[in-house]
Write a structure and sequence with these properties.
By secondary structure, the chain is mainly α. Helices cover 76% and strands 0% of the residues.
C-alpha cells in the first residue's frame, strides 16, 4: 500500500487519514 501511495500523491493523504481514523477508533470518521 505504501508503494501505491507513493505513486499517487493524493492516495497518500487518504492512506494517512484512514490510518488516523482506525487509530482513533472511528471518532474522526
Amino acid at each position: 500500500m505504501k508503494a501505491n501511495a507513493r505513486h499517487h500523491g493524493k492516495v497518500t493523504v487518504v492512506d494517512l487519514s484512514g490510518k488516523i481514523t482506525i487509530g482513533d477508533g472511528d471518532i474522526k470518521l
